[in-house]
Amino acid sequence: MRPGVIPRVLGLSAALAGLLGAVFMAPAAAGDRPADRPAAAPRTLSAEAVAAPANFTHPGVGVSRPQLDFVRGKVQAGAQPWKAAYDQMMGSKYASLSRVPKPRAVVECGSYSNPNNGCTDEREDAIAAYTTALAWYINRDDRYAKKSIELMDAWSNTIRDHTNSNAPLQTAWAGSSWPKAAEIIKYTYTSWPNSGRFATMLRNVYLPEIINGSGSNGNWELSMNEAAIGIAVHLEDRGAYDKTVGIFRNRVPAFIYLPSDGALPRTVPGSGLDTRDEIVRYWHNQSTFMQGLAQETCRDLTHTGYGLSAISHVAETSRIQGQDLYPEVGDRLRHAFGLHTKYQNGEPVPGNLCGGSLKDNLGPISEVAFNALGNRLGNAMTNTQQYTERMRPQGTNNLFVAWETLTHANNPA
């Protein structure tokens, strides 16, 4: 799958960042107002609503120690679907103990990965570091922990920058996997002498590229939010955590539509989307807005899936950290999964949705959201459940999603 193509808009990103100090847009509850009324003005959230945890939980990026313990027990017992998911992971190239890291001082990524100077190597080494960290926790074979450390040490000793038009997205994708690996190794393995250097890499090379969001593209900004919140947790950086949550709270209502938003989808403050025509163009020329529609649905389902996956990852990390964002974003997320998985399951696409045709596929991105919203919170999610179970074991998209049937299928922790 290929990276998105919208270039970064640094001026707009900076303007957006300036707005976020005081005002955040909270999603309205279903039924707040008739669908033909305009969306309400952004509401100010209390300081308590955006405060990072006083004490961070570790491991706590995407998956917690109780979740890991649940998975380990299921795999040891040979229970399904976890054993099949574990076998899938262990049979992948990312679990190979003979993998040789390929770090670069400068990773250069253009649109559609052209040029691709270290882009694939960086993303895949980051996924491999997370994969081997997971393997270590489940099988307690030191070789996997040492391989994860080898990969993280190689990059932290080398990389200095990301360049070209896809730099923010590349940083976000690799930056989503690195802290997940680092959290498991630092807090469950006996020794990692260079963990401080790795943290410095995250702070100096990754965080500055993503902390202000994209200011434009939906899946870009949500992926940047995912990486930023993971890095903030690993660094125990409360300021970065709060800033990321603020941007996320604006972007999610602007990425997924609910009828309670009014006749038109919400927009991010300062986005410059002021008219219906501008909003329709931004939503890839979709002029009929229906419950659960995503801003990139009519672009393709792959990029839509990137955004939905990132939303679920941010929410899952926030839940682990004691600041649960699922109550705020869950209604949008479950309706978005319900709409898109309905057509992924084979129902004909109506003519008023993207001209009656949807491109590509969501990919292996539904386990986290379905487990949180369907299993833990008890929402009926028939379409999503069918899609999730049919796709098991859900593996990796080779970008930033990996092994979520293993880590999150029916996980009550």
Which architecture would the CATH scheme give at its second level?
Alpha/alpha barrel
Number of strands: 5
**Biggest sheet, strands in spatial order?**
4-3-5
Main sheet attributes: strand count, strand direction, barrel closure: 3 strands, mixed
Class by SSE composition: mainly alpha
Mean pLDDT: 90
Identify the CATH class.
Mainly Alpha
Number of domains: 1
The CATH homologous superfamily is called: Chondroitin AC/alginate lyase
What is the helical fraction, as a range of percent? 40-55%
pLDDT < 50 stretches? 1-48
Protein name: Alginate lyase domain-containing protein
GO cellular component, one term: periplasmic space
GO molecular function, one term: lyase activity
Domain Alginate lyase: 125-345
Please write out the topology.
Elements: H1 10-19, H2 47-50, E1 60-61, E2 63-64, H3 65-76, H4 82-90, E3 106-109, E4 116-117, H5 119-139, H6 142-156, E5 161-163, H7 167-188, H8 195-210, H9 218-235, H10 238-255, H11 276-282, H12 301-320, H13 326-344, H14 367-376, H15 382-391, H16 404-408
Helix pairs in contact: 3-5, 5-6, 5-7, 6-7, 6-8, 7-8, 7-9, 8-9, 9-10, 9-12, 12-13, 13-14, 13-15
Domain Alginate lyase: 125-345
Organism: Streptomyces niveus
Protein name: Alginate lyase domain-containing protein
Summary, kept brief:
The protein is mainly alpha-helical and 413 residues long. It contains 16 helices and five strands.
Could you walk me through the main structural features you see in this protein, from its secondary elements to its overall organization?
By secondary structure, the chain is mainly alpha-helical. The chain has a single domain, classed as Chondroitin AC/alginate lyase (Glycosyltransferase, Alpha/alpha barrel). It has 16 helices and five strands. A three-stranded mixed β-sheet has the order 4-3-5, with helices on one face. Helix 8 runs antiparallel to helix 9, helix 9 runs antiparallel to helix 10 (238-255) and helix 13 (326-344) packs across helix 15. It is globular. Mean pLDDT is 90; it is low at 1-48. It holds the Pfam family Alginate_lyase. Residues 125-345 form the Alginate lyase domain.
